[in-house]
Write a structure and sequence with these properties.
The structure is a homodimer. Chain A is α/β, with parallel strands linked by helices. Chain A has helices at about 20-25, 30-45, 70-80, 95-105, 120-135, 150-165, 185-190, 210-220, 245-255, 280-285, 290-295, 325-340, 345-355, 365-390, 415-425, 425-440, 465-490; strands spanning about 55, 145-150, 170-180, 195-200, 225-230, 260-265, 300-305, 315-320, 395, 405, 410, 440, 445, 460. Chain A folds into two domains: about 20-65 and about 370-495, Alpha-Beta Complex (Aspartate Aminotransferase, domain 1); about 95-355, 3-Layer(aba) Sandwich (Aspartate Aminotransferase, domain 2), CATH 3.40.640.10. Chains A, B: It comes from Oncorhynchus mykiss.
Chain lengths: ~500, ~500
């Protein structure tokens, strides 16, 4: 294998020559724990022995993988769009056919197989604008501000990419909540922007504290140029739902400090607590008056992946972007055009979510029943998760007001912390690895989302079926008690 | 609208504060000509008068938008996967049902709505590996090296992203053909890599000349670190098909100079000239012996968007990556995992393309007929395009051996060149704008793909129906003759 001058040909791409920004990226939701869970799962299938018979994956918000059934109407529309010969079949209801015809008329050659415009199919963007107006009780929405995306992640990365510039102290800073969904930190690493952490208040149900925003902003100003504030509402991984007052404060802050606002609202349909209500950042901005509504730059993100449909695999989503400078808007469209368009079947799925059957239409009853069943079960599981976790000594869980996750705080004994440190892993990573190995439960350590130093958490989804979730929580409780005991007894000889 | 200190709130994101790398991106396939074509189209619909009654878009390889019908079998499988209740219906053939069942069994919860693994659905990756082995007459393919992607563009950008590092003279250089598909230059701009142009030989049917590769490499070494060579075969926009000898030379060169090879083979099914044959870079590498096959890092890209299916909207694709360092591979999977997964319906479409009906299966005849009809018509149109264009004085068109485009050289009179310069636009842009305004034909100027200085071209697709393409070519001929006359007569007074 001798190359030029008789040398061996070496790899051109090694860890030493890899893009350092790629190296810096971390994404715990699919990190080492999940890889290990996959290995164990394959082992079980091949007859390997473990102290459990199945792996329960509560690491990722993947509803269908956990057994949730698709919404029939949505899939009917997508199937009709995919194979329009079915439009002549009597097995599909008329309202599904009407939706499919409308979508296909918006596609080049009336085919899902054509590229759409870079911003998405026109009529789908129009449907989204109508949906937003209804959601926000009449606040005007212009479909020119709507962009279909490949899931919400794609939109978030595109907007961040626009905003990153400068070097050294003028490098763009991006304010993100801690704990956060690690797409944000990963994108910030990849773009070499500056991550500015603002900590959510765990003692106050993970509420956003405006004083903490000011603190984080002032501290960051010393070493970068804060340009964006990201909010996740309802919260991921923290499950809180923001109050209207809190949103007003954030928007006022963004107005004063000239920040671009990115509001990740993919869980807008996932609110369970009767005391909470989803308020869109846009509606609150509108109600603050024209000096806010006509000036603050706001991008809001939604998705087909969450809510009651849980259609992650379709990679559908949209963003609405307000008050974008017109020349900048042309640049955004140009940037999106390089990737041509978001998947058109995902756009179709998004259309059904914003344009579901109406009460007088044939599919309404079934649709309504399916939607209520999903959201009802989630609400029940949200409550059950909080309740059972809070019976465990050394675990403290805030109410799961919305989204799909609990992010409980776990007490890890000092000896366990020491042991993890000596292994070079974070204590909650060690905890989650042990949990996986002993019970088959796959969770994500809190360190993958960020947490105050010296505190430990994990994120678990509430997506397993009620029955399976109960088993999971009980196994978790038993594991935790055993874990505490083990490390407590280990400490005894030291006394 | 007074903000802090009574100042007006300014935009936080303006052309001055926009990411300069975004500003630098250019993507002509959806550039200003296409925007203008859209405006004219809307105008026509609203009753505006133009010297034509329809816009013919020959700017983008979007088969279905130009009237090509989907492959029935592919759409049947996707519809079955989307709405599995149809598996009980007698209107679908058994082989389509079998494919759909297999795909669904590979999906979490047997649903297209689940996230797949970051590399894609396992059984689809296995099918792709089998397809590649058959295509390459037994050269081994390991499904561990296969990654599903969101169209080929997504894979290309991911691999490039891994390879970009260093500053100043050690900044990564990326060798690309000129003319090129502008995804490459756009991605290079966005990542601030160094673009290294190697010119294809227009006088020799756009062949790749190994001496030109050496020239470009040696010149670039002075100011950057060349790390990658990109090849597009069959060529976009140039339509040539590379000879086996030429591929061997490129691979030998990459071996010697320790370059990572990216071969864009999305047009592998689009070869029309009876004298040409598609040779995959992988197969040629294999035949060069183990010292090549076991060392050269090669990423090859394919897509659902081209070939005979033309399913652009599904955003399906895959890449096969050979000889990747194992640690680097884990980094690539990590990077992909941040975006979770490619659209699963696009993965399903990709599966059908690599796993079409077999001769003994019920859908074989119809599938074969539809596939042959598409490829036969394209071959006919490729020949017709070359022939008619070469009858026009001042236009010279190489054979369209493959892909979906002609890239003819056009003579632009010096007075027209001067006029364009005075307008601050490239002469071929002026030419294409005039063509659009006078005839409704939408092409992309050669300057959007790169061309030798002082030469002018345009790219046109051969995708309109045979009838419409003939009309297009005749209108184009008349326009060109008129254009030449107009600027020739303008020059007379100068003599």
């Amino acid at each position: 294998m001798a190359g030029k001058n008789g040398k061996m040909r070496e790899k051109s791409l090694t860890m030493d020559t890899l893009n350092p920004q790629v190296k810096a990226v971390e994404y715990a939701v699919r990190g080492p724990i999940v890889t290990k869970a996959g290995d164990i799962e394959r082992g079980l299938q091949q007859g390997q022995k473990h102290p459990f018979t199945e792996v329960i994956k509560a690491n990722i918000g993947d509803s269908h993988a956990m057994g949730q059934k698709p919404i029939t109407f949505l899939r009917q529309v997508v199937a009709l769009c995919s194979f329009p010969e079915l439009l002549d079949s009597s097995i599909f209801p008329d309202d599904a056919k009407q939706r499919a015809r409308r979508i296909l008329q918006g596609c080049g050659g009336q085919s899902l197989g054509s590229y759409s415009a870079s911003q998405g199919v026109d009529c789908i963007r129009q449907d989204i604008a109508v949906y937003i107006e209804q959601r926000d009780k009449g606040v005007p929405a212009d479909w020119d501000n709507i962009y279909l995306t490949t899931g919400a992640s794609d939109g978030i990365v595109s907007i961040l990419k626009m905003l990153v510039s400068g070097q050294g102290r003028s490098r763009s800073g991006v304010m993100i909540p801690i704990p956060q969904y690690p797409l944000y930190s990963a994108a910030i690493s990849e773009m070499e922007a500056v991550q500015i952490n603002y900590y959510l208040d765990e003692d106050n149900c993970w509420a956003l504290d405006i004083n903490e925003l000011h603190r984080a902003y002032q501290a960051a100003k010393e070493h970068c140029h804060p340009r964006v504030i990201c909010i996740i509402n309802p919260g991921n991984p923290t499950g809180q739902v923001q109050s209207k007052k809190c949103i007003e404060e954030v928007l006022h802050f963004a107005y004063e400090e000239n920040l671009f606002v990115m509001s990740d609202e993919v869980y807008q349909d996932n609110v369970y607590s009767p005391d909470c209500q989803f308020h869109s950042f846009k509606k609150v901005l509108y109600e603050m008056g024209p000096e806010y509504f006509n000036t603050v730059e706001l991008a809001s993100f939604h998705s087909t992946s969450k809510g009651y449909s849980g259609e992650c695999g379709f990679r559908g989503g949209y963003m609405e972007v307000l008050n974008l400078d017109l020349e900048v808007k042309a640049q955004l469209v140009k940037l999106l055009s390089v990737r041509l368009c978001p998947p058109v079947s995902g756009q179709a799925a998004m259309d059904v979510i914003v344009n579901p059957p109406l009460p007088h239409e044939p599919s309404y009853l079934q649709f309504h029943k399916e939607k209520s069943a999903v959201l009802g079960a989630l609400a029940e599981k949200a409550q059950m998760t909080e309740q059972i976790l809070n019976t465990v000594p050394g675990i403290k869980c805030n109410p799961v007001q919305g989204a799909m996750y609990a992010f409980p705080r776990i007490f890890i004994p000092p000896r366990a912390v020491e042991e993890a440190m000596s292994l070079g892993i974070s204590p909650d990573m060690m905890y989650c690895l042990r949990l996986l190995e002993e019970t088959g439960i796959c969770l994500v350590p809190g360190s993958g989302f960020g947490q105050r130093e010296g505190t430990y958490h994990f994120r678990m989804t509430i997506l397993p079926t009620t029955e399976k979730l109960k088993v999971l929580l009980e196994k978790l409780r038993d594991f935790h008690i055993k874990f505490l005991k083990e490390y407590a007894s280990l400490e005894e000889p030291k006394r």
